[in-house]
Amino acid sequence: MTTRIHKLAIFGVGLIGGSVALALKQAASVGEVVGVGRSRANLDTALKLGIIDRIATTTAEAMQGTDVVLLAVPVGQMAALMREIAPHMGAATIITDAGSTKQNVAELMQVHLAAHLKNCVPGHPIAGAETCGAPAARADLYQGKNVILTPLPQSDKTAVAKVRALWQACGAKLSEMSFAEHDAIFATVSHLPHLLAYTLVDMIARRGNADMLFDFAASGFRDFTRIAASSPEMWRDIALANRPALLTEIEQYQASLEHLREMLATEDAAALEAMFKRAQTARVRWPGK
């Protein structure tokens, strides 16, 4: 089996999809890259920057002769796209995605791509930034970064290997796990932090002295809230798609905040320091620091 992709169709040529295209081009692992998206201006920019080779104006055009389809759109758009793509899937066309939640994507594939499940391989690249659109794409985005595949029970080994090869050509490290395990993990370490950052910035922005507060905010606030500059549409869809796991995480976080409030209210210095020390130790040990 060749690992080179003859034609790649990317639905959503932004930071994620655009970076895949650039990385594969740099690795000489793709022939033609065709872009599909809602914004013609963004697609024109992607074409001008050499991210894609051609703009497809219809789904049928994008799918004709395509080896691999990458859905790099907010998860809320996945269902409609799968419905559009299904009638044009070739017998050997492989479809994967870059969504941040996997249970819902797997369920949508079961519903809308039922005749092609052996060629469906859900995936999630653990890389990104608060910037978006084609101009944000870069060839090195996935170098040394984790990509998680959550194959369907029906996924063919050849299809999984092809998707693995795609991400490896981008420089990524590959792992596989179940949908449920993936969504539980990322509710904790990714989705909840984004919700907390959005909530803090929104809380401050709604205060009467918001301008003054932002004027005096420094690097700690900047670092903690950087991810609140991410796409609201994308994170709305992620939050709703992973709602059960996120509700559990929010409940646990609320319990931790209540414990913190009690320590402050009772001036329990020893307990505060012990908690801060545990957090400091864990953060320092984290290899991603």
Strand content: 5-15%
Radius of gyration: 21 Å
Please count the helical segments.
Answer: 12
Strand order, sheet with most strands: 3-2-1-4-5-6
Structural class: alpha/beta
Biggest beta sheet summary: 6 strands, parallel
Question: What do these coordinates show?
Answer:
The structure is a single chain. By secondary structure, the protein is an alpha/beta fold. The chain is built from twelve helices and nine strands. The protein has helices at residues 15-26, 40-48, 59-63, 78-85, 103-112, 157-169, 179-205, 210-216, 219-225, 232-241, 243-265, 269-285, and strands spanning 5-11, 30-36, 54-55, 68-71, 94-97, 120-121, 123-125, 146-149, 173-176. Strands 3-2-1-4-5-6 form a six-stranded parallel β-sheet. A three-stranded mixed β-sheet has the order 7-8-9, covered by helices on one side. Helix 4 (78-85) packs parallel to helix 5 and helix 7 (179-205) packs across helix 11 (243-265). It starts with a strand and ends with a helix.
